[in-house]
Design goal:
By secondary structure, the protein is α+β, with helices and mostly antiparallel strands. Helices cover about 65% and strands about 10% of the residues. Strands 1-2-3-4 form a four-stranded antiparallel beta sheet, with no helix packed on it.
Length: about 450
């Protein structure tokens, strides 16, 4: 009999488990889904815009409020005129006979002065401008909140991708252990002369193929964890199953937890309210902004009342008869009240209101579309959850049948009824059934948390 060369397994399953545990210990504990979502939102660069939006709004509101402060302007001017005020020649001659000279104003005139105006009533302009600024700030904040909320879904996709690979890695270890056990049995049969060397080589090749699959899965997991770490802003070495779900090995507890989570989100279908989503607030803020802008249009039509004061030093002054005799500059001042009514806003009022009405209708249409799509998405998620629940109810039975067939194939191989290829086929079928079960499990969990995202619960 030829000498058999065994490919050493070196306790593949044990070594791989130790390696994964060691890697986790070196880089940190497993992160929960909620921790990753919160960290990702804080790490996302857009979060810094909240403070910028608020600072801009505060500055604009402060500037508008300062419109109630007295408006002061200083000026200086010098002019040369081709004509100036003068007394009639006859009157000038009569006054000259009495020894009074009135030569008229000089053509070179100059003054330096200050004008002060204090608004008493602005028709509500500044109040409506403040409201518009507040609405614009709330709209920008809602836009930021909507974008940040979308980060959760991206984190969910990466997180559940890692969870699924973790399950497949565990199943891969189980497969390698099963192949190793079959390998040892066939090795004994080869020594006893009841099996061919090629049978053992076939099992060894299949186990090496399973090891290659483990390498590929680990590479995919590393890539997903790297992307998740970039989102979170810190290294994520491992993830934990969310929602308090137990490990795959404890089926009864897992079923109870799954039912609890399903009821938690599934029951929301009867009382679906899209108003919890940030998109709902965003579209309503667009409508509120249009309403505030329309009120600002109304304020522009109202008259304004202000008090004013003017004072200057120069030539000529208010006493023109005195300045016709003397070119000495003088101090001059006046106080008054001014009522102004600018009706220019009437020219474009109709078109301005029409534009705002279109803006409201577009926002309302977006809101209606969002609510409609939200209901469709929830209905689809509900159907998917129901589908996976039905599939999961049959997975255990399928696996039990596959395991029974595989055990029967092991017995048949021991009695020489079938060859190793038939056994490998049954082993792979059982492993495929287990992969299908864990895929249904993780996909159902993904849909449950997808519904949580859709309903913002």
């Amino acid at each position: 009999m030829k000498k058999i060369i065994h490919i050493p397994s070196c306790g593949v399953r044990r070594l791989l488990s130790v390696a994964l545990i060691g890697l986790t210990a070196l880089t940190g504990s497993a992160q929960t889904l909620e921790e990753c979502q919160q960290a990702a939102e804080k790490n996302y660069p857009l979060i810094r815009r909240y403070q910028l939006v608020q600072s801009t709004a505060d500055l604009n509101l402060d500037n508008i409020h300062k419109g109630w402060l007295p408006q002061v302007s200083a000026y200086a001017q010098a002019t040369a005129q081709n004509k100036v005020s003068a007394l009639p020649d006859a009157l000038t001659g009569m006054l000259a006979q009495q020894g009074q000279q009135y030569g008229g104003l000089k053509k070179e005139q100059y003054k330096i002065g200050v004008d002060v105006a204090q608004t008493l009533y602005d028709g509500g302009r500044m109040r409506q401008q403040k409201e518009v600024v507040r609405r614009q700030s709330e709209l920008e904040s809602a836009q930021i909140e909507t974008s940040l909320y979308g980060v959760r879904q991206r984190v969910n996709d990466l997180y559940f991708g890692v969870l699924l690979i973790n399950e497949k890695l565990q199943l891969n270890q189980d497969l390698q252990a099963l192949l190793q056990s079959s390998e040892q049995k066939v090795g004994s049969m080869v020594k006893a002369g009841t099996a061919a060397t090629s049978d053992l080589a076939s099992l060894q090749a299949e186990r090496m193929n399973a090891r290659q699959q483990a390498v590929e899965l680990q590479s995919q997991k590393t890539a997903l964890l790297r992307l998740l770490s970039l989102f979170v802003g810190k290294e994520v070495a491992e993830v934990s199953r969310p929602g308090g779900f137990s490990d795959r090995s404890d089926k009864s507890d897992q079923s109870d937890q799954s039912d609890w989570s399903e009821k938690s989100y599934w029951s929301e279908q009867s009382s679906l309210d899209a108003s919890r989503r940030p998109e709902y607030r965003l579209f309503n803020q667009q409508i509120a902004l249009a309403n505030a802008q329309e009120k600002a249009l109304d304020a522009r039509l109202r008259p304004t009342l202000s008090a004013f004061a003017q004072g200057y030093y120069g030539y000529p002054g208010f006493d023109m008869f005195h300045d016709m005799k003397s070119t000495t500059p003088s101090f001059n001042g006046l106080l008054g009240v001014r009522l102004a009514w600018n009706i220019g806003a009437l020219y474009t009022r109709k078109n301005d209101k029409a534009q705002l009405d279109v803006q409201r209708q577009m926002a309302q249409n977006q809101l209606d579309l969002f609510v409609f799509n939200n209901r469709l998405e929830t209905a689809q998620q509900s159907e998917n959850i129901e589908k996976y629940r039905k599939l999961k109810a049959q997975d255990d039975e399928i696996i039990a049948l596959r395991a029974a067939v595989r055990k029967a194939a092991e017995s048949k191989l021991a009695h020489g009824i079938i060859d190793v290829n038939d056994l490998v086929k049954e082993i792979n079928s059982e492993n495929s059934a287990k992969i299908q079960q864990t895929t249904h499990d993780i996909e159902m969990l993904r849909e449950l948390y997808g519904m949580k995202y859709t309903l913002n619960r």
